[in-house]
């Protein structure tokens, strides 16, 4: 069947079996490998994408369920060559080591800041509790998201002023 | 003033000690990391593995006809087919053999039985479900005690001369001296404990893309490999492919933790399939396959005792360990040591006599044991001694900090010869302990504990002061499958003063592209940003033994420093030529060459690099490059003290970690930010191991813990917030004074967490709870002492 | 790790969906959020011939109050209950349970109705719905039924829902009076299923006695359990510590836990007791602090 969705602002229409998982659609049909597969029981979150702005596990969705909807992957974070605040935060605070969980973590972080511009540490840890990291012990991921929140708030205040 | 500008220069340069932001981040934050599953080659096929549902069974027959008939299936490979090419069995890294695809029997649940190669991974999995295997189940051996009991079914009946399930017997230390110590002891404290099976479980599973070109015979294998050169050599031996035609490319790795050191059947079959079919073959395991069949960790039963004199000093240590190695002895460890470096078990303590006895057994479980940041079994040893010292503290009525301070190897004693044959390079254990105590506020917390205890509330403080041993290692003593454990660095500086550094080690997230550039920056004065670091491609890097057991900085880092010095020294010859001076009068300071006495008349390293191609003295070869293969003179011995505070819910048995203070000493820190990142990761793994991670088996050998619903990895919500501290005691033999650190926290922290729980419960008479310390176990222990909510 | 092949349809109307279910019977499965079904499909524990995706159908989501009920569209996501702050005071137990379901990513897609119909014995909503005395509106091509939560959960993954029915709405009565409730869950980590969980919902009368009580347990039996004897022992009582302790013991007696890797049967039963006890204290405190 043909599946049509908007990915990172661009509409894509590709033929795929109904059983195609969204993560496989993204990786194999669309050739975008920034979204990763880390488990087979929907527990690790490495496959996280944003569906209409909300973080979801793309391994636990059929591509068909994203029909007509907006999907954002890690490749869609930077705009016009400019890094998203979340990407800058992860780099500044050493929020990544092997990088495998990073796309998912950044998308969850970006979505969190959108809805909660000043998250506490507890709120950050709660928001990423569906994403496993084996390398960092989460300390710097929390710092990275906090960094991004501060930077975004400063920028927004500056914009308003 | 001068110091400030020097420091500013170092920061700008990205030299040692600078928390330089990572150079490799760019591709990862853009989602452009290049992992093995991201590799797509023209004509590439996909492989799925059919695995045994039984822990122990004879194979009567395999019917692949239905699978082969599925449209899109190119081939179905069985052990029988491999046997025709002498590939059904392969050697392991421990001198045993391992089935690639089962022929006569299956020997663990999840063992590889057949492989389906198809146009897409969905078709491969559909067809794999149609492979029909007729099994005759046999009695499964699920514990090593069962395995070594008389009459147990022989698992490795295909091995000539193997009449039981025993693998090895190994001893270290001095039995007589130890017996004598125990004979004169005033007190003997013993402990029996089990370090259960857990799994490194990197977030990226294992896999490969094998591309054997049918015309040239060149085999390019993209592989999740922590040791690409060693793997290339082993592939050549196992698969009979000429080594100069094999190129192993280990690209970006999504974590390793020792899981990507062994050679797995999937790699071998994918390569053989590519060779036979003439198209690239991709095999990427799923998480269940990773947990059920790849290199697990620990599974060590340890019994031991410490002899204590009337003064409270430890005078002897005995440990017996029984190792569950699974169905094949496939430990990735130096060949001389059947129990890895377990004999570091005297730990941080000055124990004059020790005797270690190790026995290994086969069971019907996945093969392995040496993995998961274990430093070659140092996790087991460190856990045991720190738990035993806790028992000693309780039984002798001494505070666990005081008993350690009394028995620590003192700073003046280094280099220290341990009773089990190690020469510890440097250490200052009391200082690390003091920093930790101050950071925690130890005395106040003991007061709080006393008050809470009086009210019937359960609070505990756990201590662990570990010393571990990393940096394998001196070639005469350390080899893997015969390959000596040197490591290498090849450095070339270009005419424009930038350079490329190629390494024999292989990062899986440890930040080598940054930290190794920092070493060059420090040694040669070229900014770290100007040094490109390459690893993982065997065609383009010097031979090395790879990254595991925290060896990269001790060995690869040393090689990098030494090769930088080689170039520095060649630079002096060029500088002498440019200055028309005697080379003996040339001085060098952080990238600047000058004649003795004229420090303001400078030629920079960039000037020298340009001259190396344009203006050379007669007789000197052009270029500014070199390679060093470094044979470390000794191991390095990082250490630390970890303190954990827990509160226990009497009603549910749940343990909450209130605080976790970790003071580490890994000698000179190249990049403090990266070191701290490694430590936080390790403390989290230790937390998971202590409280929730477990692979276990029922009586039939069914694996429990073979997916992430059952194998529990902590999330950011459960994971404690760590408080880090440091001391710096350089390694005297390492060129830059650095030790390894990647595994310290996983080595040292489990005992700290468990000791905290035991400390909370010891007054009730509870002396041990084996890991994982789950809430039901705590509740049961409390209930057994009549404590309830 | 990938589903077996199936035919797929995503009807725009409920009638179409019900027609398809009527036609295909046991060969069809309903896809709502997919957070319970898709993992089963991937493990090939479920191999439907036809998947009926009800994701496009209008008016199946949303939370509103009407006629003394809170009406939750069956396809309402868990996270939408989590953020329904105005339920505080009336149905604390829903607000306390929602954030504890699985993890935040699952909650963004998983649905209340889907989870209830899936009826995992450790599924959180089952205990909650039993505690609040919910009713489930289900439709088929032949009409509509309203099924009380009590009795809906028949066994593991087995409910009173027929193969050709779709749940459209969950109705929770708002009992007049001061109410309070909570949900306590023992889980080994975020994202884990409950090892033991208890949902508690009480309403106090003007005299300070318990006018209504609901106690639901999950993960301690073949299906979610309504602790009716415990509830009965609480209703009409002044909720003293002793009464609460006794009620908790009765509730634990209703549990039939199985020993497994999470713990012994005794352990689970005792945690159920502790949770009901703690939960009732919280619920009563909240109810006493509430305005009528």
CATH class of the largest domain in chain B: Alpha Beta
CATH architecture descriptor name of the largest domain in chain B: 2-Layer Sandwich
Strand content of chain A: 5-15%
**Count of beta strands of chain B:** 35
Query: How many domains, in number, for the residues of chain A?
Result: 2
Which fold name corresponds to the CATH topology of the largest domain in chain B?
Aldehyde Oxidoreductase, domain 4
Shape of chain A: globular
What is the radius of gyration of chain B computed over CA atoms, rounded to a whole number of angstroms? 27 Å
Helix content of chain A: 25-40%
CATH superfamily of the largest domain in chain A: [2Fe-2S]-binding domain
Helical run tally of chain B: 20
CATH topology of the largest domain in chain A: DNA polymerase, domain 1
CATH class category of the largest domain in chain A: Mainly Alpha
Count of helical regions of chain A: 5
DSSP strand content of chain B: 15-25%
Give the N-terminus to C-terminus distance of chain A in angstroms.
51 Å
Note the main sheet of chain A.
5 strands, mixed
How are the strands of the biggest sheet of chain A laid out side by side? 2-1-5-3-4
Which sequence of SSEs, written as H and E, runs from N to C of chain A?
EEHEEEHHHH
Question: Please, could you describe this protein's structure?
Answer:
The complex is a heterotrimer of chains A (161), B (789) and C (292). In chain A, strand 3 and strand 4 form a beta hairpin. Chain A has 161 residues and is α+β, with helices and mostly antiparallel strands. Helix content of chain A is 37%, strand content 14%. The longest helix of chain A has 22 residues, at 139-160. In chain A, helix 2 (85-92) packs across helix 5. Chain A has five helices and five strands, in the order E-E-H-E-E-E-H-H-H-H. Chain B folds into three domains: 3-33 and 487-630, Aldehyde Oxidoreductase, domain 4 (2-Layer Sandwich), CATH 3.30.365.10; 36-138 and 205-252 and 260-293, Aldehyde oxidase/xanthine dehydrogenase, a/b hammerhead (Aldehyde Oxidoreductase, domain 3, Alpha-Beta Complex), CATH 3.90.1170; 297-472 and 634-784, Aldehyde Oxidoreductase, domain 4. In chain B, the strands form ten sheets. Chain B has a seven-stranded mixed sheet. In chain B, strands 9, 10, 15, 16, 17 and 18 form a six-stranded mixed sheet that branches. A four-stranded mixed sheet of chain B has the order 21-31-32-35, with helices on both faces. In chain B, helix 11 (378-396) runs parallel beside helix 19 and helix 15 (512-524) runs parallel beside helix 16 (552-579). With 292 residues, chain C is of the alpha+beta class. In chain C, 33% of the residues lie in helices and 25% in strands. Chains A and B meet through helix 2, helix 3, helix 4 and helix 5 of A and helix 2 and helix 18 of B.
């Amino acid at each position: 069947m043909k599946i049509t969705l908007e990915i990172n602002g661009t509409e894509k229409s590709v033929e795929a079996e109904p059983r195609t998982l969204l993560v496989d659609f993204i990786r194999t049909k669309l050739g975008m490998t920034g979204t990763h597969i880390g488990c087979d029981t929907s527990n690790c979150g490495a496959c996280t994408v944003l569906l209409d702005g909300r973080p979801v596990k793309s391994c636990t969705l059929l591509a068909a369920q994203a029909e007509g909807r907006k999907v954002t992957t890690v490749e869609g974070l930077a705009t016009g060559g400019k890094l998203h605040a979340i990407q800058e935060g992860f780099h500044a605070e050493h929020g990544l080591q092997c990088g495998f969980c990073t796309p998912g973590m950044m998308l969850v972080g970006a979505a969190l800041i959108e809805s909660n511009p000043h998250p506490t540490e507890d709120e950050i840890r709660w928001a990423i509790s569906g994403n496993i990291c084996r390398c960092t012990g989460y300390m710097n991921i929390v710092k990275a998201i906090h960094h991004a929140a501060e930077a975004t708030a400063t920028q927004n205040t500056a914009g308003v002023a | 003033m001068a110091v400030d500008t020097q420091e500013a220069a170092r920061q700008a340069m990205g030299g040692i000690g600078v928390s330089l932001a990572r150079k490799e981040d760019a591709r990862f934050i853009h989602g452009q990391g290049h992992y093995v599953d991201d590799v797509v080659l023209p004509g590439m096929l996909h492989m799925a593995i059919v695995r045994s549902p039984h822990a122990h069974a004879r194979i009567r027959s395999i019917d692949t006809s239905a699978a082969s008939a599925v449209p899109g299936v190119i081939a179905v490979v069985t052990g029988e087919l491999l046997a025709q090419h002498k590939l059904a069995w392969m050697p392991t890294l421990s001198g045993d053999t391992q089935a690639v695809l089962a022929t006569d029997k299956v020997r663990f649940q999840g063992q590889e039985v057949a492989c389906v190669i198809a146009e897409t991974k969905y078709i491969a999995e559909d067809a794999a479900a149609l492979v029909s295997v007729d099994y005759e189940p046999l009695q499964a051996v699920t514990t090593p005690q069962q395995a070594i009991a008389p009459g147990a079914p022989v698992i490795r009946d295909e091995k000539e001369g193997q009449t039981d399930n025993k693998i090895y017997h190994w001893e270290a230390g001095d039995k007589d001296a130890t017996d004598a110590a125990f004979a004169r002891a005033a007190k003997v404290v013993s402990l029996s404990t089990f370090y259960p099976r857990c799994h490194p479980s990197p977030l990226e599973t294992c896999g490969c893309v094998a591309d054997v070109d049918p015309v040239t015979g060149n085999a390019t294998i993209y592989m999740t490999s922590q040791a690409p050169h060693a793997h290339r050599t082993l592939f050549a031996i196992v698969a009979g492919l000429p080594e100069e035609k094999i190129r192993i490319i280990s690209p970006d790795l999504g974590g390793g933790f020792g899981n990507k050191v062994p050679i797995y059947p999937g790699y071998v079959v994918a390569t053989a399939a590519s060779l036979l079919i003439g198209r690239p073959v991709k095999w990427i395991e799923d998480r269940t396959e990773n947990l059920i069949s790849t290199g697990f960790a620990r599974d060590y039963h340890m019994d031991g005792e410490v002899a204590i004199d009337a003064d409270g000093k430890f005078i002897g240590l005995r440990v017996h360990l029984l190792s569950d190695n699974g169905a094949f002895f496939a430990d990735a460890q130096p060949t001389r040591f059947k129990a890895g470096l377990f004999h570091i078990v005297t730990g941080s303590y000055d124990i004059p006599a020790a005797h270690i006895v190790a026995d290994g057994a086969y069971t019907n479980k996945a093969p392995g044991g040496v993995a998961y940041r274990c430093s070659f079994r140092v996790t087991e040893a460190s856990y045991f001694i720190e738990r035993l010292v806790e028992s000693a503290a309780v039984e002798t009525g001494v505070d666990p900090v005081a008993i350690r301070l009394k028995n620590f190897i003192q700073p003046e004693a280094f280099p220290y010869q341990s009773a089990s044959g190690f020469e510890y390079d440097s250490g200052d254990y009391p200082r690390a302990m003091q920093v930790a105590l101050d950071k925690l506020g130890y005395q106040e917390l003991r007061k709080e504990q006393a008050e809470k205890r009086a009210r019937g509330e359960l609070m505990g403080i756990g201590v662990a002061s570990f010393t571990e041993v990393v940096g394998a290692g001196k070639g005469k003593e350390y080899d893997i499958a015969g390959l000596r454990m040197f490591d290498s660095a090849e450095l070339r500086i270009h005419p424009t003063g930038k350079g490329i550094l190629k390494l024999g080690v292989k990062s899986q997230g440890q930040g080598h592209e940054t930290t190794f550039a920092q070493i060059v920056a420090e040694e040669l004065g070229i900014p770290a940003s100007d040094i490109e670091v390459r690893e993982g491609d065997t065609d383009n890097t010097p031979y090395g033994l790879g990254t595991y057991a925290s060896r990269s900085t001790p060995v690869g880092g040393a090689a990098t420093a030494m090769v930088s010095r080689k170039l520095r020294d060649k630079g002096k010859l060029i500088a002498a030529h440019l200055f028309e001076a005697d080379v003996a009068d040339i001085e060098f300071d952080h990238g600047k060459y000058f004649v003795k006495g004229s420090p303001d008349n400078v030629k920079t390293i960039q000037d020298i690099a340009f001259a190396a191609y344009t203006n050379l003295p007669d007789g000197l070869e052009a270029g500014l490059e070199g390679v060093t293969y470094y044979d470390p003179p000794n191991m390095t011995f990082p250490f630390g003290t970890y303190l954990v505070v827990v509160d226990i819910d009497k009603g549910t048995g749940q343990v909450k970690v209130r605080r976790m203070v970790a003071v580490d000493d890994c000698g000179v820190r190249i990049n403090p930010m990266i070191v701290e990142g490694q430590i936080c990761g390790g403390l989290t793994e230790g937390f998971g191991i202590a409280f929730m991670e477990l692979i276990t088996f029922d009586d039939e050998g069914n694996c429990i813990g073979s997916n992430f619903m059952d194998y529990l990895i902590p999330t950011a919500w459960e994971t404690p917030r760590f408080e880090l501290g440091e001391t710096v005691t350089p390694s005297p033999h390492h060129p830059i004074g650095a030790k390894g650190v990647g595994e310290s926290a996983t080595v040292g922290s489990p005992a700290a967490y468990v000791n905290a729980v035991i400390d909370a419960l010891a007054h009730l008479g509870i002396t041990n709870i084996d890991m994982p310390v789950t809430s039901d176990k705590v509740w049961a222990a409390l209930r057994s002492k009549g404590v309830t909510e | 790790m990938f589903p077996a092949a199936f035919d797929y349809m995503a009807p725009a109307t409920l009638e179409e969906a019900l027609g398809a279910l009527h036609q295909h019977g046991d060969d069809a499965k309903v896809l709502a959020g997919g957070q319970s079904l898709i993992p089963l499909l991937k493990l090939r524990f479920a191999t439907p011939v036809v998947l009926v995706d009800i994701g496009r159908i209008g008016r199946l989501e949303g939370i509103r109050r009407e006629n003394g009920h809170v009406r939750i569209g069956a396809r309402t996501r868990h996270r939408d209950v989590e953020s329904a702050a105005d339920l505080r005071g009336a149905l604390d137990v829903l607000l306390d349970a929602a954030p504890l379901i699985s993890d935040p990513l699952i909650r963004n897609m998983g649905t209340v109705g889907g989870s209830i119909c899936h009826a995992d014995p450790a599924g959180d909503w089952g205990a909650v719905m039993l505690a609040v005395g919910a009713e489930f509106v289900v439709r088929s091509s032949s009409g509509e039924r309203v099924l009380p939560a009590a009795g809906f959960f028949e066994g593991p993954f087995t409910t009173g829902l027929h193969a050709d029915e779709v749940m459209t709405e969950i109705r929770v009565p708002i009992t007049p009076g001061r109410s309070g409730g909570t949900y306590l869950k023992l889980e080994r980590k975020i994202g884990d299923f409950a090892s033991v969980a208890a949902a508690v919902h009480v309403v106090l009368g003007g005299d300070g006695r318990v006018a209504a009580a609901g106690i639901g347990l999950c993960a301690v039996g073949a299906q979610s359990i309504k602790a009716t004897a415990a509830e009965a022992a609480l209703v009409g009582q002044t909720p003293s510590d002793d009464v609460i302790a006794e009620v908790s013991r009765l509730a634990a007696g209703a549990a039939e836990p199985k020993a497994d890797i999470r713990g012994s049967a005794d352990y689970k039963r005792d945690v159920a007791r502790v949770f009901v006890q703690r939960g009732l204290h919280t619920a009563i405190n909240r109810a006493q602090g509430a305005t009528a």
